[in-house]
Amino acid sequence: MKREIYDEDHEAFRSSVREFLDREVVPDLEQHAEEKSLPREFWVGAGKQGLLGLEIPEQYGGTEAGDYRFNAVLTEELAKVNMTLPSCVGIHADIVAPYLVHLTTEEQRQRWLPGFCSGETLTAIGMTEPSGGSDLAGLKTTAVKDGDSWVINGSKTFITNGYSADLVVVAARTSPEKKAKGITLFGVDTALDGYSRGRKLDKVGQPESDTAELFFEDVRVSDEDIIGELDQGFIHMMTFLPQERLGCSITNLAHAAQILTETIAYCKERKAFGQSIGQFQHNKFLIADLVTRVEVTQAFIDQCVIAHTKGELTPIDAAKAKWWTSQLQNEVLDHCVQLHGGYGFMNEYRVARAWRDARVTKIWAGSNEIMKELIGRDIGL
Ligand SMILES: Cc1cc2nc3c(=O)[nH]c(=O)nc-3n(C[C@H](O)[C@H](O)[C@H](O)COP(=O)(O)OP(=O)(O)OC[C@H]3O[C@@H](n4cnc5c(N)ncnc54)[C@H](O)[C@@H]3O)c2cc1C
Question: Which residues are marked as active site?
Answer without folding.
Answer: 244
